[in-house]
Amino acid sequence: MKDIYITKYQILQKNGFSSKHNIDCWNQKEYIGFGAASHSYNENVRYSKIENIENYINNIETKNFGKNIIIHEKQNKEEIQKEFMLIGLRKIGGVSIEEFKNRFSKDPLKLYKREISKLIKKDLLEISNNYIKLTNKGLDFANIVWEEFV
């Protein structure tokens, strides 16, 4: 059974549609949410605002802005690289080796040699045209692939 994200993405792409927000998230682009219960990803930190609107407004009125923020994750370089691989493999096109090198000054084929070799041997990944991507079998077992980068 295919993962819902891949299946949904494939269907949307086949029909000529795609979600700009989802693709931006899969490319680790930053975004800022405004208002109660909004979510943001900025400077490698994922955070949200509190959900209770009365408390949210009260914190603004009393200049307690920090009380409105809930930090969910602060990523270090290694976590960002792993996430780049994991999220990149959610895209049908896969992970651009060149883009990884440009962004992190490292070769993903060397950095993740053990993981990539293991997954290629299982016929779950392939390297094609400077991209690391899921094979047809890999699409069916995508969660197994992603576990290598968690």
Q: Can you give keywords for this protein?
A:
150 residues; alpha+beta; Arc Repressor Mutant, subunit A; 2 domains; 9 helices; elongated
Compact overview of the structure:
This protein has 150 residues and is of the alpha+beta class. 47% of the residues lie in helices and 17% in strands.
Architecture overview:
The protein is an alpha+beta fold. The chain has two domains: 4-14 and 77-147, Orthogonal Bundle (Arc Repressor Mutant, subunit A); 39-74, no CATH class. The protein has helices at residues 4-14, 20-26, 53-61, 77-88, 97-104, 108-111, 113-121, 136-140, 142-147, and strands at 39-42, 45-49, 69-74, 95-96, 125-128, 131-134. It has a three-stranded antiparallel sheet with strand order 1-2-3, with no helix packed on it. Strands 4-6-5 form a three-stranded antiparallel sheet. A hairpin with a 2-residue loop joins strand 1 and strand 2.
